[in-house]
Design brief:
By secondary structure, the protein is an alpha+beta fold. It folds into two domains: 2-120, Impact, N-terminal domain (Ribosomal Protein S5, domain 2); 126-197, 2-Layer Sandwich (Alpha-Beta Plaits). The chain is built from five helices and ten strands, in the order βββαββαβαβαββαβ. The longest helix is centred in the middle third of the chain and has 19 residues, at 101-119. It is elongated. The protein starts with a strand and ends with a strand. 31% of the residues are buried.
């Protein structure tokens, strides 16, 4: 599975119409919609702001006033063809006075997204389970020892009344086995699934 590391923007001109594609890494539909709203405000003077996104919790596209199937759908098809996930594409069009026809629009919106992908740094990502281990401050040495010994990836540490580490795991059985021997001292709970860069 792939995504992009950072936001990118590219621009093409087709028969005097300007097409600006903004690509953003986004994990959820809510995040995608925030980006889309922000760009709608930024380019409020544009003729169209067409969108497509593929997030961990769903996907969607919008022609924003272009003839049905000529903008959003070709855009999401380009994302799918490039096996991109967790990404949002917004193509902003400033009409140049010459109509492109349905085929011309499909080609222009597709090309716009392809240009942006060509400028993006592509990352390989994988879906991992994230577990949280929680323990008293007196158990930090024990927890850190197991993390080091078993080469575990800790992606977050929280220190409040107790200590908690978020650990990513490919093999949950191994992870559960590591910490079950500390039952009562170190609690382990499933937190969520996350897409993370492939090692």
């Amino acid at each position: 599975m792939k995504t992009i590391r950072n936001p990118v923007q590219s621009e093409i001109n087709v028969k005097k119409s300007q097409f600006i594609c903004s690509l953003f890494p986004t994990k959820t539909k809510a995040e995608s919609k925030q980006i889309i709203q922000k760009l709608n405000e930024q380019y409020s003077d544009a003729t169209h702001n067409c969108t497509a996104y593929i997030a961990s919790d769903g996907e969607g596209f919008d022609d924003d006033g272009e003839p049905g199937g000529t903008a959003g759908k070709p855009m999401i098809n380009v994302l799918r063809k490039n096996e991109l996930h967790n990404v949002t594409a917004v193509v902003t069009r400033y009409f140049g006075g010459i109509k492109l026809g349905a085929g011309g629009l499909v080609r222009a919106y597709s090309k716009s997204v392809m240009e942006a992908i060509g400028q993006a740094e592509i990352l390989e990502i994988e879906e991992y389970d994230v577990y949280t281990i929680t323990f008293e401050y007196s158990e930090i040495k024990t927890a850190d020892g197991e993390v080091r010994t078993n080469n575990l990836d800790v992606i977050d540490k929280q220190y409040s009344d107790k200590v908690s580490y978020d650990i990513v795991s490919k093999d949950n059985r191994d992870l559960l086995k590591i910490f079950e021997k500390y039952s009562g001292k170190i609690a382990i709970d499933f937190k969520n699934k996350q897409f993370l860069e492939k090692n």
